[in-house]
Amino acid sequence: MGEHKKLEAVKEQLAGVRVVLVRPKYGENVGGAARVAHNMGIRRLVVVGLELPEQAAMEKMATHHAKDLISGLTLAPTLADAVADCSWVVGTTARQGRRRFFLKNPAQMVDHLVPKLAHNQVALVFGPEDCGLSNAELELCNATVTIPTADFSSLNLAQAVGVICYELFSTMMARKGVAPAAPSLASSRLLAAMYDDLEKTLAAIGYLKEADLALWRHNFSHFFNRIGLRAREVKLLNGLCQQVQWLAQGRPARKGEKK
Ligand code: SAH
Fold first, then answer.
1. Which of 40, 58, 180, 233 is the most buried (most CB within 10 A)?
2. Span 203-216, pLDDT tens digits
3. Do residue 114 and residue 11 come from a single domain?
4. Are the beta carbons of 89 and 140 closer than 8 angstroms?
């Protein structure tokens, strides 16, 4: 494939990728992130928060090249809303805390991600400058990644966006042929509903009485998110939950059924 054709193919594959910035404080960082995302072939930027940072600061750093990303920027009230239709969500974190999971370096993260591009919407998620992503936000992620550093683990937000987007773009450009395509996976919205259903079911059979609810949710979401479930596998688990809840309620008559 010629260089130009390759670039067009990579850009097309990247159309399903969005960069999500969670509660960014500084417009300059949003502008800087937009610019480098644009440099690396990514066309969609979402900000999580109640209002956008200052427009002038964003535009100044984005320059006119990335102005489309800034004018097309969408605002979502929560990370769950920003990634509801995504079926592969990558969180980035400077700190590898005890409850952080599935940490991969950028190259490994890209190896996992590229096959998903064929049939899935993908999000690359970045945290606020002061505190990074919360544990609850990391629970929405299928994988988390840390950029290795020699000293002081935390990069500037826009620079972290640059490193991750560069790794993705440059790996895709260097690859010969087409990556094997992973199937279409369950969306984040579907998974969240399944965790609610599981929680209800485990409460119904007394499993959660002594367990710490937050820890339970953390462990289960880690387990299922990492696998990357398909929609019909989620349906299977939903069906199982329905049946267990029905048994736990003492088998009440079902619609149209005589007792
Ligand atoms: N003080 C925060 C760091 C915030 S930096 C903390 O200790 O968590 C803002 C964001 O840039 C982070 O939430 C993360 O998304 C990204 N980032 C910064 N350094 C990074 C690193 N080494 N690896 C991956 N992401 C990083």
1. 58
2. 888 887 666 777 88
3. yes
4. yes
pTM of the predicted structure, to 2 decimals? 0.94
Q: Is the CB of 91 under 6 A from ligand 1?
A: no
Is residue 154 lining ligand 1, measured as CB closer than 6 Å? Answer: yes
Judge if the beta carbon of residue 99 lies within 6 A of ligand 1: no
Q: Is 31 in the pocket of ligand 1 (CB under 6 A)?
A: no
pLDDT reading at 101 higher than 90: no
Domain that holds residue 144: 3-174
DSSP state string for 163-187: HHHHHHHHHHHH--SPPPPPPP---
Q: How far apart are CA 95 and CA 135, in angstroms?
A: 12
> Are residue 168 and residue 196 in the same domain, yes or no?
no
CA dihedral 81, 86, 92, 93 (to 10 degrees): 50
Phi and psi at residue 252, to the nearest 5°: -60, 155
157 lines ligand 1 (CB under 6 A): yes
- Listed residue (123, 128, 131) closest to 26, CA to CA: 128
Q: What is the CATH number of the domain that holds 54?
A: 3.40.1280.10
pLDDT in tens, 54-66: 889 999 998 888 8
Tokens of 119: 């049939």
Nearest protein CA to atom 26 of ligand 1, as residue = 94
| Integer Cα distance of 118 and 158 in angstroms | 27
| Distance (Å) from CA 232 to ligand 1 centroid | 35
